[in-house]
Structure formats: structure tokens, C-alpha cells
């Protein structure tokens, strides 16, 4: 038969000041600034957004107005026979 022995608590938890939102923001700011990839990610994101807007604008300005030529402008219907 085995018995469980209680483990003596040798270390007491240290009561420090409670964490504040400013502390969290400061820690995240330090983490963001210390990553070498952060400027690259921001630069590529900005390039993607500006490039997407440029392509969308270019496609809007070069597209012909109105429906495509392969599609008729009015749907074809059979004439009514009066019955």
C-alpha cells in the first residue's frame, strides 16, 4: 500500500503590485520593437494595399463602359402571340 506524502511548501508566493494595462502595453511595445521582421511586415503590407488599389483603379479606368460585347444588351424574348 502506498500513501501520498504532502509536499511541504518552501517558497511563498511573492505579492507584487497588480499588473496594469500600461504595463501590458509597454511589454507589447518592447516586443514589437525588438522583432527584426516588424518593419518588413509593415512595408510589405503597405506595398500590398497600395498595389491592390492601383490595380483596381487601373482596371476600372481601362474597362469599357457597359456590358461586354458578347452579352446582348437586352434579353431576347419571343414575341407575344395575343392568345
Main β sheet profile? none
Number of helices: 2
H and E string: HH
Mean pLDDT, rounded to whole units? 81
Low-confidence spans: pLDDT under 50, at least 5 residues?
none
In what range is the share of β-strand residues?
under 5%
Rg, alpha carbons: 34 Å
Q: Count the E strands.
A: 0
Estimated helix fraction: 40-55%
Q: Assign the structural class, choosing from mainly alpha, mainly beta, alpha/beta, alpha+beta, or little secondary structure.
A: mainly alpha
Written description of the protein model:
By secondary structure, the protein is mostly helical. The mean pLDDT is 81. The chain contains two helices and no strands. The radius of gyration is 34 Å and the shape is elongated. The chain starts with 20 loop residues before the first helix and ends in a 21-residue tail after the last helix.
